Amino acid sequence: MITVEPEAPIEAEAAPRRRFGPRSHLTSGGLALILTSGITSVLGLPYWVIAARSYSAAEVGIGSALVSTMLLLSSLSTGGLKRSLIRFVPEAGAGARRLVTRTYALALLAGCGAAIVFVLGVGLWAPELDVLRDDLLLGAAFVVGVGFWGLFQLQDSVLVALRRPWVVPLENVAFSLGKIVLLVGLAAVVPVAGVYLSWAVPALVAVVVVTTWLVRTQATPAPVEGAVAATGREMTRFAGAEHLASLLWHGTMHATPLLVLALLGPAQNASYYVATQIAYALYLVGSNVGDVLVAEGAIERHNLHRSLQTAAQQVVGFLVPGVAVMVVGAPWILAAFGGGYSADATTLLRLLALSFVPNTAVSLLVGVAQVRGRMGRVVAIYAAIAAAS
Questions:
Q1: What is the predicted pLDDT for the residue at 268?
Q2: What is the dihedral sign for C-alpha 114, 40, 339, 193?
Q3: pLDDT range class, residue 337, cuts 50, 70, 90
């Protein structure tokens, strides 16, 4: 059990106990986002089974590399903004809409700009993806996709910060089903781009639909007693440190498929990417509960230690059965994709599942440090992980 001593025990004892306090919000929010992880896992498995059987291994390898590059570039462009929105929107009050609008504009410009640079120089750093330069329509779709994928990720942060996490699983059900429909429909039309477009198009639609709903319902943060909106300097300091930490984490995670593609080829990259996508659902559990922990910690700081205990209990409830299923069932899970995937990636999937245990502990402790503004500690943790990788 992870425990953290409260920084101000006197205030913690004096704080009034509420029937529907941070514990209930954290529990319901955490369950909503854990449900999202489950949806990602359950619907992600048939997605990659269909991809493996509808596209050649080389097409899956190229398509998954395009998806991984989209995730990498959007993370490099918006990495410091995701937790920044979760941390500061609850305190922003009437200025929340302005904060979100400016953050979205910055993310969209940064993501599209990064994608343009990547496409123009693709022959230098990823010649295997020359299709982006050879096919102008695909290149343009890639640029737009990177920009909107960043907004798609930030959108979940806004929903968590506004205490509307129940929208996140609904959004992800629609996104995951849309991916599968497009994957099948595009197999015979644009096989090289089919995998990538099946991710990018539903994400763009989700951003438009959810943003329109938030605007029409005039969603605002829940009132925070005694809260003072953070200054621009405080938000910049937080976002800068968080961005550096995110670069270390996402750079390590999303750059690996490009290395596998360059060193081992498209077929081996397909096996690697399928295994990581299956295991990623477990990683999302710790990350999603950490998001809710940061949002609730910003609202109820005096209960941070109790919130951490609640979050840890939630994660442990899913940790043991999830890891056990993946470790024991790895060869059978991968066999659904074809014999080659099971032979190549069984050990990798088991190792990824076991790594979920320390990764979750890190996610929760990072959330505590972010609430307390100890961003130097956050950067140090992710620097150590990147160096070890």
A1: 80
A2: negative
A3: confident
